[in-house]
Structure to design on (196 residues):
């Protein structure tokens, strides 16, 4: 019975820094099919004047990305696995974070961190992602399909005011849902409900 299930997220440790937007898209994660890397490349092919895309992560599709980048003329920089503080610095300076996962991601730490840092997000509507991203409110949401993902990327890239609004709303969500005090209040609520 779904009414008897309560979902309590992990506490997001405080991270911070000042955003200073630069001209690149950021992907953070395993460079694999389930994280949507082929989908991302198919979408980027359709984005006119796409800025450079930085891929922070490692995985089985590194060579595939290099070949597709050359073959399709995509401006992609593979950073490999980088320390967490460098990931945070990249988040603070990207134009947007793309999260094209095609598998049912439970509740992505990367998305929560991006919200905490007021980063505009374009994501696919798989798994637990809709628990964080509400289309046109806390990010832009796409089906895991290249044409729609390209359209959402283009919309976010072209509209600075939209990015600002999405980032602000995402930060409000993170503060309301993933801070220590918010998670403790949820746990206490679960216990009260169980004891009543």
């Amino acid at each position: 019975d779904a009414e008897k299930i309560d979902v309590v997220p992990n506490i997001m440790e405080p991270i911070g820094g000042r955003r200073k937007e630069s001209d690149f898209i950021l992907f953070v994660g395993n460079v694999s099919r389930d994280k949507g890397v082929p989908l991302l490349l198919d979408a980027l092919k359709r984005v006119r004047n796409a800025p450079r895309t930085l891929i922070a992560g490692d995985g089985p599709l590194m060579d595939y990305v290099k070949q597709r980048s050359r073959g399709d003329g995509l401006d992609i920089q593979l950073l490999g696995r980088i320390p967490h503080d460098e990931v945070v610095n990249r988040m603070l300076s990207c134009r947007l974070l793309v999260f094209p996962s095609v598998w049912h991601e439970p509740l992505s730490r990367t998305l929560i961190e991006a919200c905490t840092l007021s980063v505009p997000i374009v994501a696919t509507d798989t798994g637990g992602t809709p628990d964080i991203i509400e289309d046109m409110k806390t990010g832009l949401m796409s089906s895991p399909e290249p044409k729609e993902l390209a359209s959402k990327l283009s919309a976010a890239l072209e509209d600075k005011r939209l990015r600002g609004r999405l980032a602000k709303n995402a930060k409000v969500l993170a503060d309301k849902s993933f801070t220590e005090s918010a998670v403790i209040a949820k746990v206490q609520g679960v216990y009260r409900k169980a004891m009543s």
User: Anything to note?
Assistant: The mean pLDDT is 94.
